[in-house]
Amino acid sequence: MSKSKNTPAPKPAALTEKELAARNAAALARVDAMDEPEKLRNLMANADRMGVTPVRDAAFRRLALIQTEGEPGSLEHDFTQTIFAYEQLVREELGKAKRLTKTRMAMTKSGAAKALSGFAKATEDYTAFDTLMARGLDDMTGEAVILRHPDAFDLAIRDAATARLAASEAATAAAATA
Asked: CB of 143 within 8 A of CB of 106?
């Protein structure tokens, strides 16, 4: 007698804490060798579903890195990585890709430094900064990129970037104690 197609598959035995830790460590170790965006997105989705934040975060950062061209550590590379990171977060939220066309055009037309200067000079909050900060990706904000490349910006821009990051950190700390 054949099995019915409606018969559910047997549930796997529950893993011990040690087995879970080993599986998560193995997944984390694989991330650095991955270079296909869709595989990284799948890993991120699985890690989200299973509540394995370190694996999800590592895959997210790797995804932003592999999509970025140019010399790692350069201003252009870091800024492009910020763009990809925010676009991925928007993609997750909307369920479809959305490109930062205006930001990319500004970078192409005037260069990364001038485009980033606009981030720091913005007098109002902007979604990308808030979204990246809320996800604990403060090192991927435009302001953080400015502070990693201080020679490319004047003092006023660096001070504005520092102030925005400090204000956000203060607001986060105040919310945590409330």
From this structure: no
